[in-house]
Amino acid sequence: MDDSGFSTMLTRLSEKSRDDYYNPYTKFSWPDSVSEEQWWMNPDYLTVSGTGLIEDEKTLKALARLETVNFFSLHVHGIRELMIEVAKRIHTPDFAEYNEYLHHFIGEENAHMWFFAEFCYRYTGGIYPEPASPLRREGFGDLWDDVVVFSRILIFEEIFDYYNSRMGKDPLIPDILREIHSAHHHDESRHVAFGKQLVKRLYDRAAAADPSRRDEIEKYVKDYMTYSVRSLYNPQLFRDCGVEKPLEVRRKALSHPVREAFHVKLMARVDRYFVATEIFRTSWGTDHVNA
Ligand SMILES: [Fe+2]
Ligand SMILES: [Fe+2]
């Protein structure tokens, strides 16, 4: 394999991380409070958007606050667990060439975890607990476990980036939230560029050693995509903003055709990547819509 392109990219991304380095603890000027009159999340991005399930503006504004907290909480829990996996691999022989960049990755994710949690603790009752995951995380064999870990990171980052890139420039939401989304988007654009190249390399290495698990991995990665979408719809949020029959509202929202179309859009970029790299034989979107 000609690696010169990949090494150049690694060097370039590491340089960019150095140049863009910031102190997360002093970067933001945290206001004393964040107005509850404002939308904390653009209503277009709420999980009930387009469904007509909740129409009262006060409840929707409360939901926008809680969905922001849920979204930030998902980053805290998701990235803690994935950082553990990255930390297990850094400075081991198989990952030696990525050491420099992985240091930036861990450092930046540590900063993200801090500012997302900080927002929740400063202005709300704190973060939501980690959602239970039905998916196993390892046991596919070492090389395939590497693929699984970095595919999960990539999916996770692409979902965040969908929202961050939009809310990072949304004049509707409070300044501090716009700044947090924008800072995260800025760092994640490097992580996604790295992740796409890395997953492909790890996949090719694993598939060459043991092609028999390809279908199983495709299914796993797709299940992770589905699980990630579902985690955005936390029934506790509906309960916490006083919606009646929260579980039913959650179920109806999740399966609403407008929302299903949105899920496909949310995942489109990463789904296209998996198809283009032949990690997927069929797209998640096609499976999802036909399910
Ligand atoms: Fe992050
Ligand atoms: Fe990231």
UniProtKB/TrEMBL annotation:
<dbReference type="InterPro" id="IPR012348">
    <property type="entry name" value="RNR-like"/>
</dbReference>
<dbReference type="InterPro" id="IPR025859">
    <property type="entry name" value="AurF/CmlI"/>
</dbReference>
<dbReference type="InterPro" id="IPR009078">
    <property type="entry name" value="Ferritin-like_SF"/>
</dbReference>
<dbReference type="Pfam" id="PF11583">
    <property type="entry name" value="AurF"/>
</dbReference>
<protein>
    <submittedName>
        <fullName>Diiron oxygenase</fullName>
    </submittedName>
</protein>
